[in-house]
Amino acid sequence: MNIKSLLLGSAAALAAVSGAQAADAIVAAEPEPMEYVRVCDAFGTGYFYIPGTETCLKIGGYVRFQTNFGRDRSGTSDWDTFTRGQLQFDAKNDTELGTLESTIVLQTNADSSVNGGSTFLDTASIAIAGFKFGYYYSWWDDGIAGETDALATNTIFNSISYTYDGGAFKAGISVDE
């Protein structure tokens, strides 16, 4: 009787454990949907929110390829090529003083005369409430993409400027290094 009750008890325990395992099936939790990129239309097209912040970011740029035909100044070549790539980051955020804007522009030029090309910081600036601080083009060369005025390369400075924008009328003052 001892062995008989031991066998019955073991069978009952085994059945209870097996039933418990079957009832407690593993259910995989559904992953919560994540929003990787949210569009930010507060500052125009092309902006998106940086995850976890209220800052809007726009990444842009261009690639330019140019070929010149004919003898160069040294008289050694019938043609020459030039390539430029520009990468621009614009970040904007609303504050009590207005929109806080930050801009960084990196530029790379590749020419046959420069082995491997040259990469440099073209613009780095912060602007808020009409004030702008940083390294950027002066008003003598502002707004003509890819070109420079008669002042050549003397138009990009470390500067502090203020611009009053009255809609159809703009006025400003700048101190350039």
What would you note in describing this structure?
With 177 residues, the protein is mainly beta. It has a domain of 101 residues: Single Sheet (Outer membrane efflux proteins (OEP)). It is 12% helix and 49% strand. It is built from one helix and eight strands, in the order αββββββββ. It has an eight-stranded antiparallel beta sheet with strand order 1-2-3-4-5-6-7-8, with no helix packed on it. The longest helix is centred in the first third of the chain and has 22 residues.
Write the layout of secondary structure elements.
Blueprint: H1 2-23, E1 48-49, E2 56-69, E3 79-95, E4 98-111, E5 114-128, E6 131-137, E7 156-165, E8 170-176
Question: What labels describe this entry?
Answer:
177 residues; mainly beta; Outer membrane efflux proteins (OEP); eight-stranded antiparallel sheet; 1 helix; flat
In one word, what is the shape? flat
**Average pLDDT over all residues:** 81
Major sheet attributes: 8 strands, antiparallel
The CATH architecture designation of the domain at 29-129 is Single Sheet
Indicate the CATH topology of the domain at 29-129. Answer: Outer membrane efflux proteins (OEP)
Low-confidence stretches: none
Number of helices: 1
Helix content estimate: 10-25%
Task: Just give the CATH class of the domain at 29-129.
Answer: Mainly Beta
Quick description:
The chain is mainly beta and 177 residues long. Helix content is 12%, strand content 49%.
